[in-house]
Amino acid sequence: MKIATLTFHRALNYGAVLQTYALQKVLDDLGYDTEVLDYRSSFIEKHYEPDKIRDYLSPKKMAILLLLNGFSIVKRSQFQHFLDNQIRLSKPCYSQSDLEEIESNYDMILVGSDQIWNYKTAGFDKAYFLNFVKDNSKKASYAASIGLSVIPEEFIASYQKLLESFSKISVRECEGQQLLETLLQRQDIRTVVDPTLLIKKDHWSELGVECEVPDRYVLVYLLSENRKIVNFAKKVAKQKKCKIVYINNQLFRQSGMVNKRNISPENWIYLFENAEYIVTNSFHGTVFSIIFRKVFWSDYLPTSGNVNSRITTLLGGLQLKDRIISEGCSSKDDKINYDYTEKKISNLINDGLRFLKSLGE
User: Fold this and answer.
1) 3-state secondary structure of 280
2) In a 3-state reduction of DSSP, which class is residue 210?
3) Whole-angstrom Cα distance, residue 149 to residue 210?
4) In terms of Cα–Cα distance, which of 264, 285, 158 is closest to 218?
5) Helix (H) or strand (E) holding 20
6) Measuring CA to CA, how many Å separate 152 from each of 60, 158, 189, 272, 302?
7) CA atoms within 13 A on the CB side of 216
8) To bridge 195 with a disulfide, which of 22, 57, 91, 153 should be the other Cys (CB 3.0-4.6 Å)?
């Protein structure tokens, strides 16, 4: 059976490319013939375009532009290297007609495992709802996300029309499952774990590439800058007598820390595996903390959307919600009994694998 997956594989985001890799790897291991559709969504491509000089008129702002665009070029090169070497891609597709042209090459098209169904993230690009697939039996999702607690009234009809034709649906948040069950009047929708959790720790270790780090360090990885979380990490580092390694793609470096800028996806994995402690507000930062069985502290993103529900779904399912800083977790809470959560993790993995196996039935 030949399966194509469709997701935000070209986003300059570690979680996005690693979940793309993981889903393909798991499908390969299950015996499927797989490719990632190399779809170049105009909305997403534009988001990662370098800034224009006309937007920075003062000499100071032009200097900032040159620096940031330089960082962006290096980062794009590193991510493209990962895609070229680790992921099998279809030929590039730039439009609806390009996707329609190759759709017949596959027995199933599987979308996920990102916020592909959030109308805000890709300009409500209908390709991520598989509107180019003629045969409804070929439409499925794995750990897809809407990223909304409520679908606005003006979008309800569109969501119903686009999703009711899917043969199999799985999402990554309990809230998303409940939302779609009500919207589509279906009881066969499942909540499954992110595909990165379906890959064994040893395999991730093999994929990691060493970079220079202190002997003992607290790793800080933030999707959104947050002074409270940075101060929390400093408190952990002081208590544990560790350095802080900060994955920092901002223009200015954080003083008193080892700043790591523009690291590759492979280096990112290495930093998580070798950290003594981890402080993050990233979902995939939390996931890889769990994969490598690290002592970690996680927190919510400062957003009005429903993006934090994936954190609560994951940690709630593993009974690890006491690791959330905003829920009162202390820097002195420095032990996690992974023996206790091991069975729960195993059950979640088995549920995810069971869903993917069902694609061939």
Assistant:
1) strand
2) coil
3) 40
4) 285
5) helix 14-29
6) 42, 11, 21, 38, 21
7) 7
8) 22
Best CA proximity match to 260, nearest among 244, 246, 242 = 246
- Residue 205 neighbours by CB distance under 10 Å: 14
- How far apart CA 285 and CA 259 sit, in angstroms, is 17
Distance CA 322, CA 319 (A): 8
Q: What is the chain's length?
A: 361
CA dihedral 193, 126, 223, 64 (to 10 degrees): 160
For residues 352 and 142, what is the distance between their CA atoms, to the nearest angstrom?
Answer: 8
Estimate the crossing angle of helix 283-291 against helix 309-317, to 10 degrees. 20
Token output for 94: 């730039």
Q: What is the DSSP letter of 148?
A: -
| Interval 12-59: pLDDT, tens | 899 999 999 999 999 999 999 999 999 999 888 876 665 454 554 555
C-alpha–C-alpha distance, residues 147 and 120, integer Å = 9
Q: Is 193 exposed, middle or buried (0-12, 13-18, 19+ CB in 10 A)?
A: buried
- Cα torsion 274, 277, 282, 285: sign: positive
Residue type, 110: L
CB 339 within 8 A of CB 10: no
Token pair 């697939």 in the structure block, residue: 133
> Is 173 in a helix, a strand, or coil?
coil
Only one residue has tokens 């720790």, namely 201
Report d(CA 39, CA 96) in Å as an integer. 9
Which of 151, 148, 101, 109 lies closest to 129, judged by CA? 109
Environment class of 96 (CB within 10 Å of its CB; exposed 0-12, middle 13-18, buried 19+): middle
Is 143:194 a contact under the CB 8 Å cutoff? yes
Sign of CA dihedral 112, 321, 203, 272: positive
Q: Convert the pLDDT of each residue in 104-159 to its tens digit.
A: 999 999 998 888 999 988 889 999 999 999 999 999 999 998 888 889 999 999 99
Alpha carbon 57 to its chain's center:
35
Strand-pair partners of 140 = 110, 168
- Check residue 270 and give its pLDDT: 98
pLDDT < 50 positions in the chain: 51, 53, 56, 60-70, 304-305
Distance from C-alpha of 233 to C-alpha of 227, rounded to nearest angstrom: 10
